[in-house]
Amino acid sequence: MARRRKKKNSFKSIIDFAVLVILLVIIIFLMQKFIIPLILEKRVPKIEETKEEIELTPPSDVVGEEQIVLYFADGNAQYLVPEYRKIKIVEGIAKQAIIELIKGPSSSELYPTIPSTTRVNGLYIGDGIAYIDLSSEVIKNHPGGSTGELLTVYSIVMTLTSFPEINKVQILVDGNSGETLVGHVDTSIPLERDESWLKK
Fold it and tell me: Which helix (H) or strand (E) holds 134?
């Protein structure tokens, strides 16, 4: 009789233990399914909300603008006149300034100094000297004349020496430094800024 009771008590303990394990499993499941996500939801924003906030925030690397000065011929094609222009800040802004110079003036009272077909092959700055390499159209399509050539050369020199890091300018054509562009101005050496070409 005592043996049967002992066996019965042992079976009951096993059932109690099994019920306890099942209850623990249910509790852990409920916590993982409902309670823990609820706590996390209060502490951490949803991914969708975070994404929306990021999209609404303006980018920190917005490209700004910089004012540059370009030099064009006056109405009589005798002197150079500065024209101020705002362009986007880019790497190699001195090169971009010459590209803008080739595009020509915004003012109808000024005239271009470089043939519009001219391309900028490259620009390198070293020891305060800007080496500007232009395509051969600067020679082929140039209207000629000593004053015209001087205005071309010094519009480039004046524009580039407006940048503080540039003191002199060496003009190259397709990588070569020739004696002149069209026969009148010595371009075989770096040229300095000459404000006598500015219209008073």
Answer: strand 129-134
